[in-house]
Amino acid sequence: MTHKTELSRFELGLAKLAEVDGKVGEEVVAPLGDLGKYVIEFAFGDIYQREGLSLREREIATVAMLTVLGRETQLRVHINAALNVGLSAEEIEETIIQTVPYAGFPTAINGINILKDVVSEVHG
Amino acid sequence: MTHKTELSRFELGLAKLAEVDGKVGEEVVAPLGDLGKYVIEFAFGDIYQREGLSLREREIATVAMLTVLGRETQLRVHINAALNVGLSAEEIEETIIQTVPYAGFPTAINGINILKDVVSEVHG
Amino acid sequence: MTHKTELSRFELGLAKLAEVDGKVGEEVVAPLGDLGKYVIEFAFGDIYQREGLSLREREIATVAMLTVLGRETQLRVHINAALNVGLSAEEIEETIIQTVPYAGFPTAINGINILKDVVSEVHG
Amino acid sequence: MTHKTELSRFELGLAKLAEVDGKVGEEVVAPLGDLGKYVIEFAFGDIYQREGLSLREREIATVAMLTVLGRETQLRVHINAALNVGLSAEEIEETIIQTVPYAGFPTAINGINILKDVVSEVHG
Amino acid sequence: MTHKTELSRFELGLAKLAEVDGKVGEEVVAPLGDLGKYVIEFAFGDIYQREGLSLREREIATVAMLTVLGRETQLRVHINAALNVGLSAEEIEETIIQTVPYAGFPTAINGINILKDVVSEVHG
Amino acid sequence: MTHKTELSRFELGLAKLAEVDGKVGEEVVAPLGDLGKYVIEFAFGDIYQREGLSLREREIATVAMLTVLGRETQLRVHINAALNVGLSAEEIEETIIQTVPYAGFPTAINGINILKDVVSEVHG
After folding, report:
1. H helices of chain E, where?
2. CB atoms C68 and D68 under 8 Å
3. What percent of chain A has pLDDT over 70?
4. Residue F86's CATH number
5. Which residues make Cβ contacts (< 8 Å) with residue C101, sequence separation at least 6?
6. Number of structural domains chain B divides into
7. Which residues contact C31 (CB under 8 A, 6 or more apart)?
8. Is the domain of F62 the same as that of F82?
9. pLDDT of residue B122
10. Both A65 and A114 in a single domain?
11. What is the pLDDT of residue E3?
12. Which residue has better confidence, D20 or B2?
C-alpha cells in the first residue's frame, strides 16, 4: 500500500502547472508563499491531474468561468494556458462568446480584449 | 445573396433548443413572452448554432459558468442538456469539481447536489 | 439652524417605507431588530427621501439591480413596490428585459418568473 | 407581410448605438468582431429599440446595474451615454447613491469616482 | 524528517471538521464523493488546521463571506459552526450587520433570517 | 432624554474613521460628496461604533469580504486599517488564505498581492 506524500502532491502539481501554464504559471505562483503552495498542491496536484476531462476541456471550462467572474489577471494566465494545451485563438474566442447568454456582454467584452492582447503578445 | 430573416433565426433557435435541451428547454422558455423569444433567437439561434466548439464543449463551459454563478434553476436545465448532448454524469461531476479552484466549495457543493438530483430523476 | 434627529430619521424612513413598499415592506423589516432599524433610517430615511430622482426612477434602478444580483426575496418586495409607485407590469417586464445585455438570461428569467408570480397574486 | 432582416437589425442597432452612446460606443464595439456584431444587433437592435421605457429610464437602470456589478469600463461608457440621452451629472450621482442600500459602499465609491472622471473629461 | 501523508490530511481534516461543524458538517460532506474528500482534506485538513487565527476568528470571516456571497445553505452550516466554536448569537448578528456597508441590505437580511432560524432550531 | 443628532453621528463617524483607517480613510472619503457623508455617518458613525465585536474582529470580517467580492481599491484601504487596529501582516495573510475554500484562488491571489504591496509601502 502506497500513499501520495505532501512532497509528491507538490511535485505532481508543479509538473502539471508547467504542462498547463508554461512559465507564466510559475511566475504567478512563485511569490505567493503558502497560498502558492496550495495552488500547486491542490489546484494542480489534486484537481488538474484528475482524469475524466482533457486539459483542453478543463481550459474551456476555466476560460468561461474566469470570464464571467471578471477575474482578469487569471483570465490572461488561462488564455495563455488554453493556447498552450492546444486550443486555437478562434476556439477561445468562441468560448468567450458562449458566455454572453449566461452573463451578458460586459464580461465577454473584457474577455475578448484580453484575448486580443494575449494573441498580439504571442505574435508580437 | 441571402439573409437569415427573423423568422429563420427563431426557427433555427427552436430546433437548436430541442437538440440541446430536449423538452425541458421548451417548457422553461414557453411562458417567458418576449424574453423567451430572445432566448430562442439569440441564445440558440445565434450563439449555440455557431461553429468552432462542439455542443459537448459548449455544455462543459455552460455547466461550469452556471455553477460558479450560482444560478441553480438554469444549472439543472443544463445538466440535463449536458447529458442530452453526450456528456456522462461522471464528466459533469468532473466539470463541477474543476470549478473549485476558481470559485470555492459552496457553489460546487450546490452543483454536485443538483447533479445527484438530476441523475436520480433520470434513473428513477 | 435645525438638525434632523435620530427620531426624525426613523419616522421619516417609516413614512417613506410605507409610501414605497406598502405593508409588505413593514412585514419584512419588523422582525430584523437593529438591521431593520438601519433599513428604515438609512435606506428609507436617508436615501429614498432624497430628491433628484422620482420614486418611479428609483424603483426602475432597484428592480434592475436586484434582478442582476439575483436577490430574489427582495426583488419580490420591490416588484410590489414598483407597482405601488406607479410602474405598470409591462414597464417592470421591460426593466427586467433591459438587464439581459448586461447580465445574461438566467437572472432575467428568474426575474420574469417572480414578476409573473407577483402579478398573479395581485390579481388572484 | 414584412420581416426585419439580419441587415436591418444591424442597421437599426447601429443607429440606436449612435443615439445612445455617441461615438464612444462605436469605438468600443468596432474592434470586437462577431461579439461586436451581437452588441449592435441584439443589445441595440433588439433591446434598446423596444418601447415601454424611455432611453433615460434605460440608462438609469444600466448605470445602476453596471455600478453594482463592478463593470467599470462599461460603466464609463454608460455614464457618457446617460449624459448623452439627457440625464444630468446630478441625476447620475443620485442613481449611484441609490445603489448603496442594495450593494454597499465599495461599488458606489468606484462609480462616483468614474462619474467625476467623466464629468471632468467632458468639461476639461 | 516527516511527511504528512494523504491519509493523515484526511484524518486531520475529519477531526477538524468535527471540531468546527459538529455533526452537521459530516452530514453535508458525506454524500459528496470526491468533492467531499477535498472539503475534508483541503478546507479542513490544510486550511482550518493552520495557526495564526483562532477558530472563532475564522468563523467570523466565514460568516461574513458566506453572507455577502449569498451562499445560504453553507451559511446555515457555518452559523452552527460559529455557535459551536464559541461565538454567541449576538456576535454572529453583529458580524452580519458588519457586512451591510460592504454588500448592502439584501444579503444581510437573508443572513439575519437564517440566523434566527438556526437559533430557534437550537432552542426549539 | 437625549437624541444623537445628525451632527453627532457625523462627528462620531469621523472620529471612528480616523481610529480605523488613519489618514487613508479620510483621503478616500473627502472627495465623495454626499456619498462620503454617508460613509462617515452610516458605515463609521452607526456600524463601526457598535459594540459586540472588536475592531480587530470587524477588520478580519472586512478583509475577508472585500477579498471575495474583488473590491481591490477598498481592500487596500482596509488592509491598512487592519494593520492600524493591530492585526499583523501574517494575520491578514491568514485571513486571505481562509477565503480560498469559500471563493477560490483568483480573488485570494489578488488579495495577497495587494497585501504585499501595502506591506512594502509601509516598510519602504
Report:
1. 6-21, 23-29, 34-38, 55-69, 72-84, 89-98, 100-103, 105-123
2. yes
3. 94
4. 1.20.1290.10
5. A104, A105, D39, D42, D43, D47
6. 2
7. E116
8. yes
9. 83
10. yes
11. 55
12. D20
Clarify whether residues C14 and C36 are in a common domain.
yes
Q: What is the arithmetic mean of pLDDT over A71-90?
A: 96
Do E46 and E72 have their domain in common? Answer: no
* Below-70 pLDDT ranges, chain E: 1-7
What integer is the mean pLDDT of D110-114?
A: 98
Measured CA to CA, the distance from residue E77 to residue E92 in angstroms comes to 13
Q: Are F117 and F84 in contact (CB under 8 A)?
A: no
> CA A54 from chain center: how many Å?
13
Residue F41 structural domain: 1-50
Q: Answer yes or no: do D67 and D122 share one domain.
A: yes
State the complex-level ipTM.
Answer: 0.93
DSSP state of A99: T
Neighbours of F65 (CB within 10 A): 27
The answer to whether E70 contacts C70, with C-beta atoms less than 8 Å apart, is yes
Does the pLDDT at position D25 exceed 80? no
Chain D residues in contact with chain F using a Cβ-Cβ cutoff of 8 Å: 70, 93, 96-97, 100, 105-110, 112-113, 116
Q: What is the pLDDT of residue F23?
A: 78
Q: Average pLDDT, stretch C9-26?
A: 89
Same domain, C101 and C114: yes
Contact C109 B34 (CB under 8 A): no
Q: Measured between CB atoms, which of C39, C61, C103 is closest to D69?
A: C103
How far, in whole angstroms, is CA B69 from its chain's centroid?
14
Q: Which three cell numbers stand for residue F68?
A: 471575495
3-state secondary structure of B2: coil
pLDDT at A16 over 70: yes
Q: Do C33 and C69 fall within a single domain? A: no
**pLDDT for the residue numbered D1:** 40
For residue C71, the chain D residues in CB contact (below 8 A) are: 102
| Predicted local confidence at residue F26, as pLDDT | 78
Low-confidence ranges of chain B (pLDDT < 50): 1-2
E-chain residues near A10 (CB < 8 A): none
Are the Cβ atoms of E101 and F61 closer than 8 angstroms? no
Instruction: Tell me how far apart the alpha carbons of residues F63 and F71 are, in angstroms, rounded to a whole number.
Output: 10
pLDDT at E99: 98
Taking any CB pair shorter than 8 Å as contact, residues of chain B touching chain A are: 39, 42-43, 47, 50, 52-53, 57-58, 60-66, 68-69, 71, 74, 90-91, 93-95, 97-103
Cell of F28: 478616500
Amino acid letter at B46? D
For residue E64, the model assigns a pLDDT of 98
Q: Are residues E67 and E33 in the same domain?
A: no
Closest CA to D35 of B49, A116, A109: A109
For cell 468614474, the residue is: D114
> Which of B42-51, C21-30, C37-46 bottoms out in mean pLDDT, i.e. has the lowest?
C21-30
Q: Using the 8-state DSSP alphabet, how is residue D18 labeled?
A: H
Residue E87, sorted as left (phi over 0), alpha (psi -120 to 50) or beta, turns out to be beta
> Who among E35, E66, E69 is closest to B108 (CB)?
E35
At E46, list the grid cell. 490544510
In chain E, how long is the greatest CA-to-CA distance?
Answer: 52
* CA of E104 vs chain F CAs: smallest distance (Å): 11
A31-61: pLDDT as tens digits = 999 999 999 999 999 999 999 999 999 999 9
